[in-house]
Description:
With 165 residues, the protein is mainly alpha-helical. It has two domains: 1-79 and 146-165; 82-143. The protein contains five helices and no strands. The chain has helices spanning 16-40, 46-67, 83-108, 113-139, 148-164. The chain is globular. It holds the Pfam family Coat_F. Belongs to the CotF family.
Amino acid sequence: MHYQYSGKQSPRTLAWHETLELHELVAFSSIGLMKLKKGLKKIECPTLKAIYHQTIKELEANLKELLQFYPLAPREDEEERNFDKAFYAGDLLAFSKTAVRNYAVAITETATPELRVVLAKQLQMAILSHARIFNYMYERGFYPSYNLQQLLKNDVNLANRAISM
């Protein structure tokens, strides 16, 4: 399904902020899709296996829809990357981002001062962990956060690889 801009004039490009959100969704969904497909062979319960299949089908459809917007993204120069290292590094980056968010939310729900101290300490470790994996990815070109076109090309390659698995 192709979506069209409903205003009087079609945009020539997406805005930078929406392009970055699009990038986050495509990268997260692609890694999730790859994990689901890798884990599918280990699922024995027919009901759970059916849920996995449905989720995989929906993620593939979502990625195909989102990828349609990539031609509208602002353009810069593009490069290739190493998928295996980038996949595992991206998975760790997504995990570390989620850990930071989860600790931050948990702290706001904590009434016990001793627990709050422990969670705050662990939040700081999660932030450092995120910085470590981000720096690893950035230094190797796996997460070219200052090069939007490369970032988007990486998303397209990752999504297409996830779909074709």
